[in-house]
Amino acid sequence: MDPNASLLLLLTISTDISEEVIFIYNKELEEIAPQNIFWYPKKGQNGDAEFIWKEKKLKQWLVIGIDREIKQITDNLLINKIIKIEFGQKQVIFKLDVNQISPYEEEDIERINNIPLCIETIKYRFDGLKTDISAFVGQANNCSALEGYNIDVNIKPILPYGFLPKGFLFQNFQNFVLGFFEERGIYSYLRGDIKTNKYSDPNLFYGFVQSSQEFKRNHKIEIHELDSVNILGEGQINIDTGVWNLELTKPAGQGKFLIKGINNDPKTCGHNFFLIKNINLDLKIVNRSIKDMYGRVINITSDSQIKAPLSDPLLWIKDNSSDSNKAELELSEKYTEVLLSLCKTITICDPYLLGDLDEDNGTLKISKDQHAFFNALFLAIIIGDIQELKLLCNWGKTKKFCNSDKQILISRYKSLFNDINKNILQAEKQIKVSIFFCQSPFHDRYWFGKNNDKDLVYHISNSINGIFDNGEVIFTPVGGNNNYQERMKLDRRLKDSSIEIITNGTN
Amino acid sequence: MAQINKFDLNKTLENRIEEIVQFLYDYFEPNLGDTFSIIDPYLEPYSHIQEAFDNGKVEINIWAFFLSYISDEEIEVKFITRKSLDNLKKINEKYPIELQYPASSKNLTINMCQFRDGLYNKHELHDRWILKQSAAGEFKGIHLGPSLSDIDKKDVTITTFSELTLRDANTRFQYLWDICLKQNKVKK
Description:
The structure holds 2 protein chains of 2 kinds. Chain A is an alpha+beta fold. In chain A, the strands form 6 sheets. In chain A, strands 1, 2, 3, 4, 5, 6, 7, 8, 9 and 10 form a 10-stranded mixed sheet that branches. In chain A, strands 20-28-27-26-21-24-25-29 form an 8-stranded mixed sheet, with helices on both faces. In chain A, about 20% of the residues lie in helices and about 35% in strands. Chain A has helices spanning about 65-80, 140-145, 170-175, 215, 325-340, 370-385, 395-400, 405-425, 465-470, 480-495, and strands spanning about 5-15, 20-30, 40, 50-55, 60-65, 80-85, 90-95, 100-105, 120-125, 175-180, 185-190, 205-210, 220-225, 230-235, 245, 255-260, 270-275, 290, 295-300, 315, 345-350, 360, 365, 390-395, 430-440, 445-450, 455-460, 470-475, 495-505. Chain B is α+β, with helices and mostly antiparallel strands. Helix content of chain B is about 30%, strand content about 20%. The longest helix of chain B is centred in the last third of the chain and has 25 residues, at about 165-185. In chain B, strand 4 and strand 5 (about 110-115) form a beta hairpin. The interface between A and B is medium-sized, with 17 and 15 residues.
């Protein structure tokens, strides 16, 4: 009997009325279907599915059945956007709250013109999805935890384990490609035998094809040149084991791999291939490693890292992380990305400075917000190119949230940055810091820098000390005339300020 | 007592806005529990305040700038204007309309009422006032020359008054506020 089983995986956000579908994966299997459609325990059996992320009301539903039955559920969702499924006395409504669902095709360098891939997956993009999926879009950690490649105490992995490859959810959620139909295909792999020619392309190839004996009998392997129809080699597939071996007429590091029909079988499938070769390793001497403020080990090399300027707004939302510690780490990582793009001299304009610094028995105490920022600054100085930091504030506003007077606050900032300089000295880095106390009032928060002679201005939605309470922050690049105007305003305010040198950067 | 913030070709509008906001801030010394009562017939709630916050253009809109500057404390602000409240993203639909304050601070409660000239009691609005009553019942206030949103190329005269006059002005504000609320009930 031919395989006829399909597996359907749904992810839903549970509401009082319905299950709002946010992800569909229908896979045809190499198995015989059970007699009756089967919903897995806690994944839909008796109409019940447990939360896999309780806070986000996320559930996984998993069902196996005959191809036709499972496809019908999928089609109902994709075409009608709703399906009501009866589980005895209980009815569950699955709804897709979306404007439009359309097939999604992306450029695939593996695809050969007019030849199907051996495993085809039809993808669907959900345009105008109204269900909130912000916890997954751009959220690599959350997606990885769902895939099962990352442990998160709040998020259970999708079953079966390893169903989705690493990075799959992150990549597809970003593009709102959330529907998949994987047809039953021919699983195969190809390898070049690099032992034959260690430093150049191989001419011996081997691989494996998984399929029925009849298929293997009626097909052969061919390898063609990538950019022509010239055949470099062809061979049989072992009917019993599925293994094949080829010796090509000349070495090849890339080409077309075809499983070609013979004996009047017209079915042919295949793909382009590009071998990963031995390359000369660009050895970066890791001079030393350091621990950041979260205890992570960072290797320092001799090259400075510079990030590209932000082209789109960069957003951090506290509630998109599964817990507060992860949220803080992710915020720190966003800061690092922004700071590395601003390069050598960074000016931060915030009426409230970076917040108050408390002291307890001679030890400086910093808030969660400040911890995230200072860790990012620490890292960005060490791995990047930052040499100077200017902080523009308005004392009239800063003092509202300070427990100490101006001189005490300044001395605490000096102490903090002297500490930072002592630590970064081991990486042969130092930073110069000044505070500019602006006489005139201002409100908006901006960060300024220069990347490859390009003047950068980022608008920040919140003061650094207060982001956690607020729960979100957005960094928005400012271009055009506004960029110029803000820089001119900055120049005026800096001139209008009294300056306090916090550290010259010489330890 | 009067002060004048003069139109000056050597100063940008931005400079003057900063000066006026700083003056107002220093004069009023906003504190927890204050109530500000403001009449400006030409204040446009959406474009002068809410849109300025939404689009990050606080510093070029004097009302938004002033509000953001006093927002470190829990303060109530009442506005009477002749201009429409229709474009506002509102918290409520009853009068007075509560304005959604999207800035990082959630300290300000801003209530707005549109005064419809010629209705109920046939009052019309003209004067511009900013009045403050502290939690302890003390008054501060100023009368303004032009509307604050219209200071470009104009001198801004700021007049302060005695406590007695300010109490009187505050009483008058409350009277106009009640009329404003009644006008809007009648309309509904």
